[in-house]
Amino acid sequence: MGKISACIFDLDGVVVDTAKYHYIAWKSLANELGFDFTEEDNERLKGVSRMRSLDILLEIGGVELDDKTKLELADKKNKNYVEYILKMTPDEILPGVKDFFNELKEQGIKIALGSASKNAMTILNQLELTDYFDAVVDGTHVSNAKPDPEVFLKGAELLGVSPSECIVFEDAEAGVEAAINGNMKCVGIGSPDVLGKANIVVPGFVGFSMAQLNF
């Protein structure tokens, strides 16, 4: 393995699981509109923008609305979601993440966040993790969605390191592709079936250490 100076983490599904809150917020919107929205339906929204997610939801319910109403509904869903995440506590950090962050700090390796979420700072504050991060790049800083590498390249730039010295931790296929497109190494968090393009795939951070990063 070459020199590693920085690790860049996606947020949802890597550091914390906020997917359940997105699901609850979308489901309550669907119920208000008079139809049900299952966890299986929710799989179709993974890694998809808010407006496109709403279109898929309306498609499932067979509902057609004008653009103004759609914007109002997307906003309503986000407000619901934010209410849920404002109740989050540090015990929702995924197992092993904090231990790994502490190991990185001890080894002098920089840590950045690379997330499409526009609520990333709120979540980090709720989890009391903000101080671990040397740089945070979220949905308010980027215009291109993954698999475009913009979010990770901005992270490397803010940390002052070259992309080839970064390892990205991702749980989504588009995120793994974004890392590869940015000339970065990648660790997939989840299933090898989905994340097979990553350099290595692990189920999570429990018992995981830098020693395993032997690319």
TrEMBL record:
Pfam families: Hydrolase
GO MF annotations, alphabetized: beta-phosphoglucomutase activity; magnesium ion binding
Binding-site residues for substrate, renumbered to this chain: 10-12, 26, 45-50, 53, 77, 115-119, 146
Residues annotated as binding Mg(2+): D10, D12, E170, D171
Catalytic activity: beta-D-glucose 1-phosphate = beta-D-glucose 6-phosphate
Example GO BP: carbohydrate metabolic process
Name this protein carries in UniProt: Beta-phosphoglucomutase
Organism: Marinifilum breve
Encoding gene (name): pgmB
